[in-house]
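Ligand: iron/sulfur cluster. Inputs:
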Amino acid sequence: MIKKHRLLKQQIKYSKLDIKKINMEQELGLYPKSFSLPIGLQFELTSKCNLFCKHCYNVSGENDKKDSMDIDKWKKLVDDIIKSGGIFQCIISGGEPLLMGDSLYDIMNPLHEDGTAFILITNGMLVNNDTIKKLKKYNFYWVQVSIDDVLAEAHDDFREHIGSWEKAINAAFLFAGAGFPLRIAHSTTPKNLERLPDMIDLAYKLGASSIVCGSIMPSGRANENSNIYSHTDEYFNKLYSTIEICQAKYSGRMEVLINSDLVVDMEMKQHTPNSAAVIRPNGNVRMDCTMPFTIGNVLEDSIVNIWQEVGINSWNSELANDYIKSLDEFSNHPTHTNHIDLDIKLYEEKK
Ligand code: SF4
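Predicted complex:
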């Protein structure tokens, strides 16, 4: 059993307080009991990637596979979303979303004109001055570039591509230099934990406004690479105390964040109104990236129907409850591996 570090205890405490606050506001009629449409959506625009990272949670980069959602289908979906009331936040991810070329902007433009703000998640490989110029007009919560180490060769090995570190560093410089709110995402492993303080210093030098660190999710390709995990108390305590020290060091200058614990995250989702979903390159609509539940497919039904018939209450469905209860303390499931085994269809349960 992991001895819970102070930082994890804090996460648990704050999420319980948040749940309590939202529930009280609901009683007073100040917060909705449910959202009749999602307020945020993540678009996993493509499963194609120009890297083949050891930890890829959704097994992107198997580039011979064809995506069912082509550009016209994404554009039609965006049109439907706007006609049904629009969304506040859209996370653009993949695979690598910049592989969409200029088609990416055809998807983003109508949402932008409708007032949606974005989070862009990229590996930085294709970012150049032209990309920066084209992305400049959008409103971003943040732009996220993944950098896993201060050592180029360690990042390149993890990402299975020589030269990927240099490209990610260059992308971070370009984004920060052009005034984008830059977030660095760092996958922490037993191998790079020693260098995490240097990595956080590097993020600050690159001009990041935040860095998010944390252990790798037991999902997708990470399952084939068990040496990128550790489940020891020693590892977790070192990770949490390093983050705590760096939070104090960069207080007021750069946010140093740790991925939220999956169990804490699930509790929050089960006790507050569902507000978001993920749309995959095959049209499947998932509850989120971490839980293997599909609530519908936008190639078969409208996003409004999918949301209103299944999505709204999906976190409290019997299947989801049983699944979440079966996760172990490291968020592994005894019989089902996220993004390796087939998704569980909540909408079939409903029928
Ligand atoms: S982790 Fe990101 S960059 Fe790496 S293969 Fe997956 S989608 Fe591509």
